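Sharing a chain and its predicted structure for anyone who wants a worked example. Both blocks are below, sequence first, tokens second.
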Amino acid sequence: MTKPSSTTEMFAGQSQDVTVTSKDGKKIVLRKPPMLFMAMQRLRMALGAEYANNEALVNGYMPLLYITAIGEDEIITLNSQIQINSVCEQLGDDGMIAVITGLQKHFNEANAADKDTIKK
């Protein structure tokens, strides 16, 4: 069995891509991670013990888990604070606003359905 070489390959077939455009013209590709819970745990590990229990901080970074590309740059799995900061710098304020707006518009129903499934 071969390992996927990129985030795009890893998520292929799992969810539809959605491309949003930031106010400053950046094209950002979004896709729901196949295992959101695991992606959140990786995010917490990347943030480190000092920040992992800060729910406001974790929730603020959570939209990054959906990004698979910014422009022509593929976004790999976020494994460190340096990678997280790099993606935030690439996005800028306008990019983050576009990501959050895109998530609300295109992924809100899917996330609500997932939460209902977990409650049952």
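Comments welcome. Residues 81-106 form the longest helix (26 residues).
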